[in-house]
Amino acid sequence: MAAGDQDSRRIVALREELAHHNHCYYVLDAPEVPDAEYDRLFRQLQSLEEKYPALVTPDSPTQRVGAKPLKAFSEVHHGVPMLSLANAFDEGGVKDFHRRACERLGVEHIDYSCETKLDGLAVSLLYENGVLVRGATRGDGRSGEDVTQNVRTIDSIPLRLLGKDAPRVLEVRGEVFISRAGFARLNRAQRAEGGKQFANPRNAAAGSLRQLDPRITAARPLEIYIYGVGVVEGPADEILAGTYSAMLERFRDWGLRTSPETRVARDAEGCIAYYRDIMARRDKLPYEIDGVVYKVNRLDQQDALGAVSRAPRWALAHKFPAQEEMTVLKGIEVQVGRTGTLTPVARLEPVFVGGATVTNATLHNQDEVKRKDVRIGDTVVVRRAGDVIPEVVSVVMSKRPKHTRRFKMPERCPVCDSKVERPEGESAARCTGGLYCAAQRREAIKHFASRRAMDIEGLGDKLVDQLDEQGMLSDLSDLYRLKLEDLAGLERMGEKSAKNLIDALKKSQSTTLARFLYALGIRDVGETTARSLANYCGKLETLMHAEEEVLQEIPDVGPVVAGNVHTFFRESHNRQVIRKLIKRGMNWPEGVVDRDKLQPLSGKTFVLTGTLDSMGRDEAKAKLQALGAKVTGSVSAKTSYVVVGVDPGSKATKAEQLGVVMLDEKAFLKLLSKK
Ligand code: IVH
After folding, report:
1. Among 380, 442, 582, 656, which is least packed by CB within 10 angstroms?
2. What is the pTM for the complete model shown?
């Protein structure tokens, strides 16, 4: 078929665009667009070229995956080409793949080895007589860069294979990557030294392996998992006779690192079950993955299936929905939180990312908007990962239109028009309207009603908005004036739920002083502080009259919190609301001061790992114990904090895996000083 003008121009444009992104990604290690966008452009070009084979040129990105080796490294020719993988983006794609494989092999069932798709870079390691003689990057699949010096610095790569039965020549392939913890550490170190920040672990791994100076590579937390084989010669080439999973077993025997997440599964159903299992655990894995890989397990079947152009017919990458996508930022609105904090929120052209459609994403605060140079009209990269609030990561500068508008934090609150102030040294701007501000009032009521505060069942966010719109809630105490008739008139409110809510309100009035204090929403007074205040003072009256210096003596209360508490109770409006709440029935048992509970860290378990600059381990331990904490030697799910010093051991890794809060030395000292 002859190509129309439009199609052939599109092909040229796509090649140019892909070449640009390829350069950013592979050569500069600084991608401009999310991978998903690159993949999309690539697929577009692929399908156009399939339609018009005559227009395929040798320099098309489809004919060459990856960039040419950098000049300074010598080139390595891959005896067996390093192939890439075909992709599936949904379950239908997996079923098609499986069906085609069954047809080609003339079988009804196939066993697959399922593994995680690590987000790093592929390398080849060549062992001769058991000794590592060469390491190379994948490059364009046919030849890559000689990075022997660099791979030798990676601890998880053996310099000599274990045992004596490895083949005379064994070339294995695997993925070099950086774990989440390693990535965080690396970027922290880079910041401390004024170096550049890496955008993601993949780029950090690629940038680290392709260093001309192996000493730099050695200082980077690179790791490897082996998942494939290249050239094999000599006695033990029977490893090629059985299954892929048996081959991995042998690799493990020889001291090569393979992924612990590898499983054998039957047919498409088994693969899909594996995908779902990994997807559910994705955020808990210690490294980032962008999907899973299925490989036909029998090696003779792999051979029979062979390869097409750049990918084998016996393997498939089943990709996760991308966690980063591109979209247009249509506007920036300012949201007012419970304590008056103003947060700029991006209004976006709806975009499907991380498995959901996103229309809003946080920009955090004005400093962040400025740092990222985000402007209205820009094309931005949006990230949504797991349960984390979607955020604007960066601007795609090459897509910036001529006329963009900059964002400026308003000087007056967009909700109540009170003055906005930004306390020195803080990143947050705040509305000074207090409960006069409808946004703050509503948020304060939502907080008051929430489970860990007064726990008023049935009083959800929407209902609070509705009641406030009707002018029924000028302050918190109005909640306890609500009558059945008031509620019955509201939209979507049945008689039964109205009655339930009245009952819940009544029930919530018998509470504890700690809950009540927390519910009031005093700035920086969380549950723990509220408990401390209640325990120490016993009575609300005492607390309301306490001077700042006295408050500071309370465990868990520093000068900032003491100031906030003092100011809160000085405010006549707040005192009035409290009085009304009590008058309308709020009650709690009068407290007995419990000295044991007063220990600020009682009930908390700490584990120490690595060395601290400022004190020895015994001293740190004594300090913690003096504050009521327990200090133990090993990390478990019950551990509250792990203090991580220089050169931490496996405890840090364990903590990372279990999601235990880790404190570096600075945070640890801060915690001690606050007590
Ligand atoms: S197998 C012939 N297995 O994904 C098969 N690749 O998109 C070649 N990758 O270049 C690769 N995890 O860098 C394989 N478990 C895994 C993988 C994996 C990550 C990377 C690898 C490859 C790319 C293809």
Report:
1. 582
2. 0.60
